[in-house]
């Protein structure tokens, strides 16, 4: 006598199979979502640490000038150049005759800022020697800006920009990528004014935008610190049910659209070279 499964037993087995399959699929979907979130969190943390560390390291050297450096190239009047570098740690539009538009600017209505610094060094922000011998120091000008959600930098020979040396057409001043997925780049400038404050410490008395710097400098003030803020997006697509508004420095809060995990990073950099220079002046 042959026996088999009854219709009821088959229906029960099918139902149990569907329940188990649904549970497995749910676990797989949940695992994939968790993996995507973890990937976004990890990438945004790594990128944030990287960009803040790099910007701090490079901005820290703004205003550096060392006339005693044996590697300093002496093709120009280095004493006059040192005075210019020390008094122009942050480059403003109009500082250079060869490129008057180059300079730190603040974007309107939350748009990205641009930061331009000057220093004595042997390479620009891209690691280029700009035609000088390996190890030779010269007046370096670094320009940081965002284009198409990518943080870029480009370097210049400040001596060429000041028309102290002839331009070298073989030198490449094109921009190089620092980091992708940068959705906001903001900067504030900590200024000191020993004439107004009576404080010779070189500490910043307030923070201003790039647009306010010409008036500050004309009154005897100087930039001794930088506050930088970036808004980054992590890798991969992460669906967030409620979008959070982010506020960078003095800008109004903004809410980013689309998929992705966003996180702001901020840092304050003391320009030690300029601070010490201002303290030594004892105005």
Automatic annotation (TrEMBL):
Record carries keyword Oxidoreductase: no
Q: Per UniProt, which keywords does this protein have?
A: Membrane, Transmembrane, Transmembrane helix
> Which Pfam family, any one, appears in the UniProt record?
N_methyl
Q: Which residues cross the membrane?
A: 7-29
InterPro entries from the UniProt entry: N_methyl_site, PilW
What's the name of the protein?
Answer: PilW family protein
Native organism taxonomy: Bacteria, Pseudomonadati, Pseudomonadota, Gammaproteobacteria, Alteromonadales
């Amino acid at each position: 006598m042959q026996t088999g499964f009854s219709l009821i037993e088959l229906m029960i087995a099918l139902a149990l199979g569907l329940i188990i399959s649904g549970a497995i699929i749910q676990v797989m979907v949940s695992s994939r979502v968790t993996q995507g979130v973890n990937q976004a969190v990890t990438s945004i943390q790594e990128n944030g640490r990287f960009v803040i560390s790099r910007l701090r390291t490079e901005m820290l050297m703004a205003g550096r000038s060392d006339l005693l450096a044996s590697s300093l190239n002496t093709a120009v009047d280095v004493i006059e150049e040192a005075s210019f570098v020390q008094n122009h740690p942050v480059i403003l539009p109009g500082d250079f005759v060869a490129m008057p538009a180059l300079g730190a600017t603040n974007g309107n209505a939350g748009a990205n800022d641009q930061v331009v610094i000057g220093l004595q060094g042997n390479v620009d922000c891209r690691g280029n020697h700009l035609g000088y011998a390996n190890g030779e120091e010269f007046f370096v000008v670094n320009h940081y800006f965002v284009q198409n959600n990518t943080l870029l930098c480009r370097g210049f020979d400040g001596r060429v920009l000041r028309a102290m040396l002839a331009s070298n057409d073989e030198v490449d001043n094109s921009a190089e990528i620092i980091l992708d997925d940068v959705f906001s780049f903001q900067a504030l400038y900590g200024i000191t004014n020993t004439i107004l404050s009576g404080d010779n410490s070189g500490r910043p008395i307030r923070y201003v935008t790039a647009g306010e710097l010409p008036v500050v400098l004309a009154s005897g003030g100087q930039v001794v610190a930088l506050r930088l803020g970036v808004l980054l997006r992590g890798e991969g697509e992460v669906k967030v049910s409620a979008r959070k508004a982010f506020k960078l420095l003095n800008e109004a809060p903004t809410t980013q659209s689309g998929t992705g995990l966003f996180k702001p990073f901020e840092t304050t950099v003391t320009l030690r070279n300029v601070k010490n220079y201002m303290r030594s002046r004892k105005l």
